């Protein structure tokens, strides 16, 4: 049985065990070995080499310019700093456009040290998820605000506010779980909808702007350290302010996710 105090490496089957046992999962993005080591030491369960690196590391205004080479490089850097956390890497824009492309990109990311890949969306991506899972590549799905859809969406907005959109999102969540995803990130969805999805599916949900009822939470490294430039999304919290140091900030974040005090209503969408 998985417990958060285990120092053993976290495995893919342990994720569903954590959900069944009611243990909340704390996830953070990381892009280099130094932060990865600090996060791993502080008990972060999952590390994500996110394509958010296009924005916070490279300085672009979206995630679209990020390449598989970029993610593979940062995954290799992060992997050298990880001993316990489960390392997840994003498939960047269009690397998952076809099953074959997704398999090639995912193989590179797993060979760079990731243990799971994450991809955005449902629809034709359901076939991609099934194709990868059948080939022994663990997959994390990502629904709600999918930043790679920013051109179609016209901005980074809360998703699933209308009844029809909420029904679609709920059906998509069940579909990605049925396709074999082992984990599901829900980004920028109203708390009651994220709660319903979390009850619907047996796989853990990881929220970012999805309220307190998800099975875990994820935030971007820069955001927990108060480095958000410009508009600060509602779900962002500066844990450095209360933690006093980088290690203190991470420990405060992990503790708040574990005990359910983060996110509160002030950091969620109603
Ligand atoms: N630093 C950083 N943090 C992130 O969480 C993040 C990135 N970068 N880059 C990739 C995506 C983009 N993300 C974003 C960016 C902006 C909002 C945002 O401003 N949301 C509005 C929603 C308002 C509404 O629709 O009601 C907000 O004010 O919270 C949300 C997610 C999340 N991801
Ligand atoms: C914000 C998380 C979920 C992400 O996809 C990223 O960092 O790219
Ligand atoms: Mg991403």
UniProtKB/TrEMBL annotation:
Q: Where does 3-methyl-2-oxobutanoate bind?
A: 51-52, 90, 118
Active-site annotation: 187 (proton acceptor)
Cofactor note text: Binds 1 Mg(2+) ion per subunit.
**Cofactor(s) required, per the database record:** Mg(2+)
Q: Does the keyword Cytoplasm apply?
A: yes
Q: In which pathway does it act?
A: Cofactor biosynthesis; (R)-pantothenate biosynthesis; (R)-pantoate from 3-methyl-2-oxobutanoate: step 1/2
Keywords tagged on the record:
Cytoplasm, Magnesium, Metal-binding, Pantothenate biosynthesis, Transferase
The record, for Pfam families, names: Pantoate_transf (PF02548)
PANTHER family linked to this entry: 3-METHYL-2-OXOBUTANOATE HYDROXYMETHYLTRANSFERASE
Subunit and partners: Homodecamer; pentamer of dimers.
The protein in question is named 3-methyl-2-oxobutanoate hydroxymethyltransferase
Q: Which gene specifies this protein's sequence?
A: panB
């Amino acid at each position: 049985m998985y417990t958060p105090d285990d120092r053993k490496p976290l495995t893919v089957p342990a994720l569903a065990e954590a959900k069944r046992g009611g243990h909340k999962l704390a996830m953070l993005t990381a892009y280099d070995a130094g932060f990865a080591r600090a996060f791993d030491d502080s008990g972060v369960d999952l590390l994500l080499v996110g394509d958010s690196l296009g924005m916070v590391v490279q300085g672009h205004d979206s995630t679209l310019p990020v390449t598989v080479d970029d993610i593979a490089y940062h995954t290799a850097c992060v992997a050298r700093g990880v001993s316990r956390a489960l390392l997840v890497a994003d498939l960047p824009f269009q690397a998952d456009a076809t099953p074959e492309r997704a398999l090639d990109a995912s193989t590179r990311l797993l060979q760079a040290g990731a243990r799971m890949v994450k991809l955005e969306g449902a629809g034709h991506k359901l076939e991609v998820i099934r194709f990868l899972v059948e080939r022994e590549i663990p997959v994390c799905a990502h629904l709600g605000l999918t930043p790679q859809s920013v051109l179609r969406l016209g901005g980074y907005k809360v998703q699933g506010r209308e009844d029809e959109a909420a029904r679609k999102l709920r059906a998509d969540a069940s579909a990605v779980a049925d396709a074999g995803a082992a984990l599901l990130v829900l980004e920028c969805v109203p708390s009651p909808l994220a709660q319903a999805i979390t009850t619907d599916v047996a796989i853990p949900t990881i929220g970012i702007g999805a309220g307190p009822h998800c099975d875990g939470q994820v935030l971007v490294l820069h955001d927990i350290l108060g480095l958000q430039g410009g508009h600060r999304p509602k779900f962002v919290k500066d844990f450095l302010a209360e933690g006093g140091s980088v290690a203190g900030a991470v420990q405060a974040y992990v503790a708040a996710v574990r005990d359910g005090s983060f996110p509160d209503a002030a950091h969620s969408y109603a």
